Amino acid sequence: MKLQFATQNEGKLAEAKRVLSRFGIDVIGLPVDLWEPSSGEIQTVTMEKLRQIRRMGYDRVMVDDAGIFFAAYDHFPGVLTKRVFDRIGYRGVRKLLEGEDRTAWFEGCIAVSWDGRTGLFSARTSGRILDPIPDDIRPEAGLPFNPIFIPDGETRVLAAMTPEEQMKHSYRSRALEQMAEWLLNQQREGFHLFSR
Ligand SMILES: O=P(O)(O)OP(=O)(O)OP(=O)(O)OC[C@H]1O[C@@H](n2cnc3c(O)ncnc32)[C@H](O)[C@@H]1O
């Protein structure tokens, strides 16, 4: 089964390929630039991305939106994660969280269009931001919070873990697994209709 993934984020694409290959789903990257609203919930932004990719004529396609939330700041940066990080970097995050509650969580959502049907899957991972944030930190491709995020129950940041360990803590992997189950069900149902 082939599924397109409309994203420009290499980290997201690599994770989706890794997780979905276990379900026999072959992920093909579709590096299109989708406009994102600057307020609202992650789910709302995800559905907006799906609406745009459908309007471009694509089906059998998924989109993903994700963000990090700091307990010290109400709903921030959330849907603005990429825009905020691109401007303030680790130096800004360090200043923002100095002396503040380091509790944080990732929230992610995946929306898929399959033969015109829509599936929406959300998940979250709770943890805390590394304290202090070192000066010489290097961002991972597309996933800059991995080197400074420690999931609950762990002492190491995500970037220090193997892909298998990371997957255990990944909200994206959980959402992808839910989506894979849903897709396989869609296929089974389609097959029954066809063979009736
Ligand atoms: O093309 P798209 O899929 O939109 O890719 P993007 O990078 O613009 O993705 P988002 O709009 O969802 O931005 C979310 C940002 O949150 C960060 N992020 C998302 N998921 C992450 C993860 O699992 N680990 C670390 N950082 C993450 C990273 O900075 C992303 O660029």
Automatic annotation (TrEMBL):
Lineage summary: Bacteria, Bacillati, Bacillota, Bacilli, Bacillales
Name of protein: Non-canonical purine NTP pyrophosphatase
Organism superkingdom: Bacteria
Family to which the UniProt record says this protein belongs: Belongs to the HAM1 NTPase family.
Organism: Polycladomyces zharkentensis
Keyword GTP-binding attached: no
InterPro entries on file: ITPase-like_fam, RdgB/HAM1
Transmembrane segments: none
Keywords in alphabetical order: Hydrolase
